[in-house]
Structure formats: C-alpha cells, structure tokens
Write a structure and sequence with these properties.
Shape of chain A: globular
Structural class of chain A: mainly alpha
Largest interface: A-B, 44 and 39 residues
Mean pLDDT of chain B: 85
Radius of gyration of chain B: 18 Å
Helix content of chain A: over 70%
Strand content of chain A: under 5%
Distance between the termini of chain B: 41 Å
Structural class of chain B: mainly alpha
Number of strands of chain B: 4
Low-confidence stretches of chain A: none
Oligomer: heterodimer
Strand order of the largest sheet of chain B: 1-4
Number of domains of chain A: 1
Radius of gyration of chain A: 21 Å
Strand order of the largest sheet of chain A: 1-2
Amino acid sequence: MKQIAFIAVLAAIAIALPLVIGESPYFIGILISLLMMAALSSAWNILGGYAGQYSFGHAAYFGAGAYTTLILLTLYNLNPLLCMAMGIVVASIIALITGSIVFRLRGHYFGLASIAVAEVVRLSVLNFEFTGGAQGILLSDVVLWDLDLNSKIPFYYGMLLVLAVTLAITAYLRKSKTGYYLQAIREDQDAASSLGINISFYKNKALLISAALTSVLGSLYGLYIRFIDTSAVLDLRLSIEIILTAIIGGVGTLWGPVVGALLLVPLAEVLRSNVLGDILIKAGLVSETSGVGMFLKDNLAHAHVLVYGIITVLCILYLPKGVLGLFRRKK
Amino acid sequence: MSFLQPLISGILTGGVYALAGIGMSLVFGVMNISNFAHGDLMMLGMYLAFFSFTLLHIDPYISLVLIIPIAFMFGYMMEKVFINRVIHHPHQNQILLTVGLGLIMSNTALLAFTSDPKILTTTYSSSAFNLFGDISVSVPLLLSFLITCLITVILYLFLSKTATGMALRATSQNREAAQLMGINVAKMSAIAFGIGTALAATAGALIAPTYYIHPLAGHSFLLKAFTICVLGGLGSVVGAGVGGIIIGVVEAMSSTYLSSDWKDVIVFVIFLAVLLFRPQGLFGKKGGQ
C-alpha cells in the first residue's frame, strides 16, 4: 500500500513538473536528459543487474534505434512510430547476433564481445555512405499527429513513458519465473544449469528486452535532437555512462538506476555549464583574469568525464552496492 | 604493389602490438583481471617519450631506459593502491575500476596536454630503405620491432629462469596452490601489474615516432590489445606475441587490399570469429574459458 502511494506521488510529480516549471527549455532539457539516462540505465539493469551480464556495448542498441529512425524518416518519410518499431527490429537483430556468439561463454568474454560488436556497428556506420558517415544525419522536420514537435514537452512525456514502462517491466520481471531464473544465473550459473534452466535462452531473453527498450530511447533521442552522429549515439563513452549510472545508484535494484541518474545528470550539467567555475570567480576566490581563473573557465567544462572517472573509482572501492546499497546495509 | 610489402610492414607494426598484448595477457594470467586502463597506460608511454624528446632531448628509443622503470613503479603503485583491493571482487567491479582509472588518466592528460595531437619528429622518422628492390622498410618501425624482440627475449628469460619469474608463472597457473607453496601472491600481482604497465608504456613509446600522440589514443589500442589476447588465448604470453603479429599483418593487408577505413572492423570481426569458433584462443587450453 505504502509502495503504491509512493509511486503515485512520484508519478504525479513527474507528470506535473513541466506545468510547474513552465516552458523553460533549459530545465526541460535537463529533465529530458535525466529521464533518458534513468531509462537507459534501467534497461541496461535488466541484463546487467538481474542476469549479471555486464554489457559494455549498449550504445550499439541506442544507436541502432536512432539511426534506423532517422534514416527511414529522411529517405521515406514514414510515420515516426513505425520507424521506431523498425529500430527495435534492427536492435534485436544485433542483440541476437551478439547473444548467439557470446552467451555460450562466461566471465570476461561477454563484456569484451559486447564492446567488439558495438565497435563494429560504430565503425560500419562511420564508413557506410547511407548512414551519413562522419557527418551524421540532420533531420529537418517531423510530423506526428498534432503534436508540436518543436517544443520539448512531448519528448519529456515520451521519455517519462518509456522510463515508466521500463520500470514496470523490471518490477514485473523480478517477481516472475524469468526474473528468478535470471537471478539464479547471476548467482551461480552452474547450479542454475544443473536445475534445468536453459541459460542461454534466458540470457538472450534479457538481452532482447534490454536492447529493445534501449533502441526506443535511441529513436526518441534522435527525433528530439534531430541530429545524430556516431560520437553522440554510438560511442563507448555512452555505454560506460549507462553502466556508471546504474552502479552509482545500485545495480540489480529497481530504483537504483533512477537514483544514479538523479545524482549524475545534474552533476554533469553543473560541470558542463561551468557553474562551479563561475561560483569560485563570483565569490572572489579566483580572479577571472588570473591564470587560474582562465584555466578554470577553459577547462572545467571538459572535466566532467574526469569527475566521472573519479566517482567510478571511489564508488567501486567504497560503495560497490551503490547509494541504495548504503541504505540497505543500515536496515 | 607486391604482396610482401604489407606483410613486412604488418609484421613490424604487429611486433609493437604484441608487446601491448603480452603486457595485458600477463596481468590477466597472474591476476585474472581484464585491464581496461591498458590503452591509457600506452598513451602515457607515448607522452613520456614525447616529453623526454622535446624537453630532455633524449631519443625516444633511448628514453626507454627511463620509461620502463618509471612505468613499472607507476603500475606497481597503482596495483598496491587500487587494483589490489578488488582482486576478490566480481569481474565487473574489476573492469569498472580499471575503466575509471583509465578515464582519470586520459582526461587528466586531456586537461594537462590539451586535445591537440602532438607529433614526435626525429631525424629518421620518415626514413626508409629498400629491400629486394621494391619493398620499402620504415626505419623507425624496424627499430621498434628489433627493440620489441629484445624485450620479449628478456621477458621470456625472466619468466623461465629467475625465481620471481617462476613464482609469477606459478601464480598464473593456480593462485591458491602458489600461495600454499609460500609464494607471496599479493606481491606477484603487483609485480605482474608493474611489468604489464611497463610493457604498455614501452609499446606506446615505440609507436610514438610513427603515430599521432593524443590523450584519447589509448582507446583504439585497448581494443586491439584485447583482440590480441583473446586471439592468443587469455593469459597466454606466447599466444599474445603471435596474436600481435597476426593482427598487425591483418591490418596491413586489409589497408592495402580493402581500405584503411575498414581495417578496424576486420580486426573486431576476427575477434568475434575467434569467440565463436575457438574461444580458448589459438594457444589457450581447452575449457579455459
């Protein structure tokens, strides 16, 4: 009962938020990034958290969604939802190929092979011509029903919907037969196998669900930004950011990825927009024209990946179960 | 163009790749850790070579005398401070820790050295001589290859003849049994990581005169080093050596006969094919996965 009330309040806040903060595109933009990262990380969590298969190549599925959607839109001007469905098909094919190669192996191999597949996808997209190569794809105009797709609001609700669906699937899965099988595989693959669980079938199932959701998010992102290139949607950095978000929140928990996104996305935004440097300068601690001030102004914006690295290291050493694990231990 | 041309330049480049692969394989064998910071350690080696050339005016090949001990100490300390603490953790945590350390190294380099690629130009950087009439052999690549061979022989003798080397191999074969025999496995891990780091930095320094030096250069080498290790069999030092040469030749061949844009794709397809058909690698033991 308590849980349902909690979710209802959370959902009400999320739905009402754009009405409260109004039309500020800046804040809506940050909220969209937040919802997207939370949903991406939750989708990754189905495979990484519950089945224990850490994919380091989820950017491949995100990129598959984004590229398929934008290519079909620019070439044939199909309905965006249909393009999105085609994105799921492409991502599922990539997932099935990856799964069939790798899930017979264990340990280090899945992580390594997921990177290799993602790199093959990235380099192929970069080298082919119909994908726009290094220049990427620019989308001029999208029409879906009567929605005003020049505004960010539809994408806010779109991302929110996908996040809700992902969380609902996760919540359902972990109490279902499949979910218990996945957790058994994560804890002890040999024991799970000897109990008659078809290991590679269930791993593939988790990968397919995860990849499909990730590809939908990629499509939404493509439609939202209307410009994609390989460094934005297929980079290894994106895959790592997705994992990081889950780790910091708590891998293998329902809300962990959401908590991770709530912590990391605003942090990235603060670093990227150089708020920290501005505060130091305004507080008079550092003069704007001095060497240190200039250095901060020029470089702090690029430092957010460095901060991610430091957070990862600290998190693995001191908080391997994530922020949510911290609360669980106290209980 | 003659078929021998890409074969020879492939073997020469592959030698340097092999060095990076051997370092990663050694760490994997002794510690059972996939080191995702390996490429960034190579990048540090490139910068060490660059700065000892520009600031101290030492030839990049001679600067190895400085780079190897510095990198060894760096790796040894890195193992003692960070890696050592996750050695009994799940694989994923170990991987993420090294990913984090790699991000710290590459982005600190980005802040310190900016993203402008640097070029190390020695007097012999672009010199080459002709073999059998029409095959040109690049002097810096040949020097790198010869130094690689020398280092590999030294490493081989160290691993097979010295007490520390034998202890390293014992730890690699069976950590628990080695510990029961009185081998200090914690120290062996630190030494293995130190040697791995030194080999990565050496490979970086050797490749520096013929390559763009960039803070994010490690990224593509990391994936190459993994391919080499898996091709040779994770943990097999000999396999990594052969794997490096194979990857070098494959790259050179696909650049010549296909296009240089696709050479990395071919390398990763080989990686996946090895996982599909021979996951234990060319030199790994069956069931090793």
